[in-house]
Amino acid sequence: MFTKAGVIVEKEVTTLENKQEQKEIPSIYSLRIEELEAWLKGNDEPKFRANQIFEWLYSKRISTFEEMTNVSKGLQEKLANAFTLTTLKTIVKQESKDGTIKFLFELHDGYSIETVLMRHDYGNSVCVTTQVGCRIGCTFCASTLGGLKRNLEAGEIVAQVVNVQKALDEKGERVSHVVIMGIGEPFDNYDNMLSFLKIINHDKALNIGARHITVSTSGIIPKIYAFADEQLQINFALSLHAPNTELRSKLMPINRAYKLPDLMEAIRYYIKKTGRRVSFEYGLFGGENDSVMHAEELAALIKGIKCHVNLIPVNYVPERNYVRTPKDQIFEFERTLKKHGINVTIRREHGSDIDAACGQLRAKERKEETK
């Protein structure tokens, strides 16, 4: 009996070691093209091979290094020894009547993440995840259940878009837009997020236009300043959800660390530095932040700011107690903002007949991760 138990433990240790070893090998999808060129130079390979490798990765979307037929066997071996070619295992794939598809992917270490394909009149948009779990603790969000497990490598974020693109290849369609609004706080994984942005935007990679990419933050102020100084043409959104600091602290504990007045100063800096407008994401929670008084307060808060307000009728999350605002009240909130000259729209619902809320599918299918 002891011997048998010992064998079982030994197998578990070996598996864990194998996973740890795999984790230490970076994903080739994490490399920007200039980083790949530098790696090639350091490995006595010509710089032009970088363009060939990117073509195999992002145009032909290969699954193994051996498929790179115009790359020498020697270089294939060097690549295989230095990098993993990140693959995501599909655990669950849910498809809505409106064409929305939600993927629950498993990572190499057994953790899971969500990625969503949304269909619009203007193209196919992919919502990507940047972390396994989240530590921000927003009281309305399923993503934070179980806390933060780890950051995603840039290549693991890139692989989400590549996987969805592979699914679209079968229909002759392409990913045209990307939003970074999935599980996790993007600015809490800032460097990997930034690499991801630059990789998918590159014309030798997925060639997704900067103005077709949107990144959202819950309000990590130092990173907002840093992002402004990057002066990218990426669209920028702030998850606001409340018009005053007391209510925002109740809904979003991050407001206790980064106060609303200071956050609004950072937003003004971003606009001054980049000349670009900001989108304010405002989820409507029944009886919490959705009255005409709240709308008036919101209008006063953002008056004079170059912005757009995106009103979001919330999806019900079983683990949370918030309910959806009635339709007539949503329209009244919208009218109140428009009365004050605020540019506002109501977000179109996607995937209401599936586990559409961020983190909801993971919470249902992987309970051990979200306890």
TrEMBL record:
Domain of life per record: Bacteria
> In which residues is [4Fe-4S] cluster bound?
C134, C138, C141
Reaction it catalyzes:
adenosine(37) in tRNA + 2 reduced [2Fe-2S]-[ferredoxin] + 2 S-adenosyl-L-methionine = 2-methyladenosine(37) in tRNA + 5'-deoxyadenosine + L-methionine + 2 oxidized [2Fe-2S]-[ferredoxin] + S-adenosyl-L-homocysteine; adenosine(2503) in 23S rRNA + 2 reduced [2Fe-2S]-[ferredoxin] + 2 S-adenosyl-L-methionine = 2-methyladenosine(2503) in 23S rRNA + 5'-deoxyadenosine + L-methionine + 2 oxidized [2Fe-2S]-[ferredoxin] + S-adenosyl-L-homocysteine
Tell me one Pfam family matched here.
Radical_SAM
Q: Where in the cell is it found?
A: Cytoplasm
Stored PROSITE patterns: RADICAL_SAM (PS51918)
- Please state the Enzyme Commission number of this protein: 2.1.1.192
Look up the further comments and give them: Reaction proceeds by a ping-pong mechanism involving intermediate methylation of a conserved cysteine residue.
Q: Which family does it belong to?
A: Belongs to the radical SAM superfamily. RlmN family.
Q: What is this protein called?
A: Probable dual-specificity RNA methyltransferase RlmN
Q: Which organism is it from?
A: Bacillus suaedaesalsae
Q: What is the lineage of its organism?
A: Bacteria, Bacillati, Bacillota, Bacilli, Bacillales
